[in-house]
Structure formats: C-alpha cells, structure tokens
Amino acid sequence: MKPKFAALNLALLAGITAVGWQAKIRWDEAQARQNAVVQVKVKPVNLPQPAPAAPPEAAPAVKYADVAKKNLFSKDRDPNVVIEAPKEVEKPKPMPKLPVVYGVMGLPSGVKAVMAERQGEASSVVKTGDMIGEFKIVALNQKNVTFNWNGTEVNRTIDSLLDRGSESAGASTGGAVQRQGAVVADNNRQSIAASTQKPNTVTGVEIGSAGGPTVRACSPGDNSPAGTVVDGYTKVVQVTPFGNACRWVANAK
User: Fold this and answer.
1) Pick from 43, 69, 202, 229: most CB atoms within 10 A?
2) 156 and 192 co-located in one domain
3) Cross-strand bridge partners of residue 218
4) Could you give the dihedral angle defined by the CA atoms of residues 11, 16, 20 and 21, in that order, rounded to the nearest 10 degrees?
5) Where are the alpha helices (DSSP H) in the chain?
6) pTM reported for the whole predicted model
7) Which residue, 54, 152, 142, is CA-closest to 101?
8) Over the stretch 17-67, which tens digit does the pLDDT of each residue have?
9) Side-chain half-sphere of 34: how many Cα atoms within 13 Å?
C-alpha cells in the first residue's frame, strides 16, 4: 500500500472517531437536560373553590303566554277556537208541474207530440230526446211518455197530461177565446143553449179513448162551431202546427 493512501485512511478514521465522540457528548447532554426537567417536583397550588352559580329563575306564565297562543301547529295561530254553526240542510227542489199535451202524432219519422211547458203558454212539437221546460223526454209513444227531471224518471200516460181546460167553452160572452192552442167558441148563454140542438152534421166514427173519454172524428163538411154538444159529445177544435184539429169528446156522465 502506498504511504499516501495509508495516511488518508488514518485521517478519515480520526475524523469519524471525532464525529462519533461529539455525538456521544451531545446525547449525554440531552439526556441530562431531559432528566432534569422530568424529575423536577412541582409543588401543588391550592386554588380557591369557585362560588356556586345561582339557580335559574323560574319563568312566570305571563312570559310564555304568547308561545301558547301562537301555536306553530295551528294554521291561523289563534287560540280562540271558533265553533261554526251547523249549515242548514238545503231542502230538495220541488218538481215543477209536468208539461201539458195537446196531441200525439205517429209519423214515419217517429212519434211526436204537441206539448207546452205550462198551461196557457205556446205549444211546440217535440220528440224523444227534446227538452220541454225542465223536463227531458226519454221515451214517447202514442199512449205513454217518460220524462227525466234531475236524474229522476217520471212516467205518465198521454191521457193524464191532456189539457182538459181547452175542451170546454169559456164563460165570457161573445167572441172567441184562444186557450193553450185551442180555439173554443165563446157564445152567450142563449147561443150555448141553442148549440145543444143537432146541427146539419153529426159526430163521426169513434177513434179511441186512450183510457179517458171516448173520442170521435169530425165528419167531412162539419160546420158546427166549437163547443157544440151533440148526442153527449162536445166538439173541440185545436190549433196545431199542421192546422186546426177537430174532434168530438164524450161528456163526463
């Protein structure tokens, strides 16, 4: 080995030894400081006892009265409960009088009737499905009719709805009185008494009764006035959309 390398190795060894020695000295000093701090006895200090806190004052009822009044779970937040009076039960609406009938016609297009909403009002030709006043006609034939009023079906015979008032003469004197589409001669008592005598024509053939008084057709050329009485039959003339209708109605016995 060359002398220079040997000297260098010795110098490095000496340096390492010096560094290790210094580290050992620093370590011993740190341990001594730590032991000095840890092993120091601290004298206890007697602290004065804190005074007890005063108990909270009880809240009077007046202070939380608003909380009870303004209830969060109440929609109007009003403690005063209002008791509403019970509502009056509405009385069912009374059904008005049924329409009056002046005649029924069996046509190729179906059965039609001449009706008026009330006695004394203008008549019109109606069929199944039409409205007459507050009533709807749901079924119609030559003998019976069914109305619907507010969901309730009302069945009646045609004869029970006929306007009987138009079959008798008026009580005033002179002139002619038009009553629910029927033109009735209105003569004085002398002319009415004279009408009981047989005119030039007589009643025609019987055309039915529909559960009521017997009805006869008027003979061709019958020129007797409305209200004429012959053989227990009274002549009645009605105005229809198709012209005047003439018939003889048996008087009640």
Assistant:
1) 229
2) no
3) 203
4) 0
5) 3-38, 65-69, 158-161, 189-195
6) 0.36
7) 142
8) 989 999 999 999 998 888 888 887 778 888 888 888 888 887 776 666 666
9) 6
Residue 232: predicted pLDDT: 80
Count of structural domains within the chain = 2
Domain encompassing residue 141 = 100-161
Tokens of 112: 């039609």
Query: Domain of 106: which CATH number?
Result: 2.30.30
Assigned domain for 180 exists = yes
Is 224 in contact with 199 (CB distance < 8 Å)?
A: yes
Q: Do 243 and 220 belong to one domain?
A: yes
How far apart CA 131 and CA 102 sit, in angstroms, is 16
Token pair 């007890």 is at which residue? 52
Question: Residue 245: pLDDT band by 50, 70, 90 thresholds?
Answer: confident
